[in-house]
């Protein structure tokens, strides 16, 4: 009541000649119902109308203040989520409850088109649409006649290489696109002549482009990627069923989408406010159809992603297996995102944008296969030989593929974000929030660190792919001392690990600093830790420093046979602190660099092997020398040894004389590790040559000279005397008793 009185007084005061500062004198101080009624009776009709409107506004404002719920933005998160789901369910219920209205609108829009309410008389409209379509096909036919030779060449020729395949499918796509371009140009010209401003021509052109041009363009793109009817032109690894299934379903799908878009245009033109309902059901049907396509072709999509990899990595196998399921989840998420944008009232994502995002996701496996095909032709050929070069070349190829995939994934993410209305490139600009700037900077630092990691790996593997170490001996005669790996194969893996650890540390520190973490204590702690290690682990420092100088001096390489201070073995592993040796009998020796007083490398450059032979005193030494020389010449002519022998086997004359005979010596020079097989062959040939030339190897002899009086003894007694004399000259060793 006081409020009503105040407003009544204000109204009277505003309508009376009194000024705003003066109170009307005829308004009592204490307004009672009777006084208010008396004042109302004094108002003229215009004042009564104004008072009525004012009271209505006051009443509505009070009710809205009492009944309107608080805005969604002011609610807690769970309440926001609950409110959103309520709105989402209400939206779905509204769509399904509008099905009868939608059917009525569909019938009504078709009736309006037939009755000539949308594009003029129906028969002229239909005739114009058919005429424009016929003109388009006629123009395409003319274009095809001019390019008939090229089409026949693509149709009849069979490619002999991947380059020819790409060339042929590119030519076919260009011819198909050229025909569609001629079709579209003639339709546009015909529509212009008919008058694009007229509803009939405009609607006819929309129908042609949506239901004819768009599905055929999608078909040309799919023929380029899948070649459903020409397996020899297929750029991806897909079986015939998968290629044909995806090709047919996507063409029909886009034809249905085009027809639905045109039909939606008719509903809007007919004046029905059911545009969003119609788009909801079309989007639901299209997304369900896409999910069914992915589900049925999931094995084929996995084969497409795997491609022609003979030994696919574990990561590639997992990605190929899970990609169809990820695609299905993304399609469902994208549909929900469209609906969520509608529920929120923002409408940031339309059905056309949603279809574009889904298309990018569906074509991602084909793009990945294309990237691998391009990489296989871009990567330079392997220059070296051997297992190290082969492994490095394979890793180089994987590095190129990973870099290309990161670039492809980045492009897809930027494109999808752009379709969603998010410009990631400008998200970290000064106009953005601090959180956005830090997030983008954090991601850029991680990306730069990963790129540096890949570039280091790529450079190291590219250098290792040039490696050509001496061929390892596969002979069963090889014992030890074979040639090791090259110097780059020894040093570069250590350098790679060092650089990658440095990249990880720097990237981690910079990323933490970008998101606001104070890295000063970490740097100070690292410095203190370095000092503690330097003072408290002097042996470790000595080992590391000694190893650095050993590697700088090229003292040893992987695979070489060395003597490290009395410990011999083949180098199997090199670390920053120690070296791992495999002994001749199999044990592993771990030798720190700081404990190696001197090092003898037995596998570097070449090996000289000297052999000793003892012949009787009456042997012709010159003849033996000539035999040795002939053996060496014969072995140099053998394919088995000619590449391993540096200097042939030859005699060196008399080396010594002992109680048995004359010691003659021969020598030869071979590559490291090859000397044992050559030595075996030399022994065999020397034995055979001595037998052919009547030369015997000297052996220990005991000669017994009997006095004349014993010359007539029987032979068995003479043999007994000789045996006794031999035993006296070389008595048997007494076995040592067991402890």
Automatic annotation (TrEMBL):
- Does the UniProt entry include the keyword Membrane? yes
Write the record's keywords in alphabetical order, separated by commas. Cell membrane, Membrane, Signal, Transmembrane, Transmembrane helix
Biased composition, class Low complexity, residue ranges: 722-731
Domain Mechanosensitive ion channel MscS C-terminal: residue ranges: 610-697
Q: Which residues cross the membrane?
A: 122-143, 173-191, 203-226, 246-268, 280-298, 319-337, 357-379, 400-420, 440-460, 494-516, 522-541
Chief subcellular site?
Answer: membrane
Q: Which domain of life is it from?
A: Bacteria
Gene Ontology cellular-component annotations: plasma membrane
Q: Which residues, if any, are the signal sequence?
A: 1-20
Regarding the membrane, this protein is recorded as: Multi-pass membrane protein
Instruction: Cite the residue spans of the region called Disordered.
Output: 710-739
Q: Which GO terms describe its molecular function?
A: mechanosensitive monoatomic ion channel activity
* Residues of the Mechanosensitive ion channel MscS domain: 539-604
Q: Which InterPro entries match?
A: LSM_dom_sf (IPR010920), MS_channel_1st (IPR049142), MS_channel_C (IPR049278), MscS_beta-dom_sf (IPR023408), MscS_channel_2nd (IPR006685), MscS_channel_C_sf (IPR011066), MscS_channel_TM-2 (IPR011014), YbiO_bact (IPR045276)
Q: Which residues form the Mechanosensitive ion channel transmembrane helices 2/3 domain?
A: 501-538
UniProt KW Oxidoreductase keyword: no
SUPFAM superfamilies listed in its UniProt record: Mechanosensitive channel protein MscS (YggB), C-terminal domain, Mechanosensitive channel protein MscS (YggB), transmembrane region, Sm-like ribonucleoproteins
Cellular localisation: Cell membrane
Q: Which family does it belong to?
A: Belongs to the MscS (TC 1.A.23) family.
Q: What is this protein called?
A: Small-conductance mechanosensitive channel
Organism name? Roseibium aquae
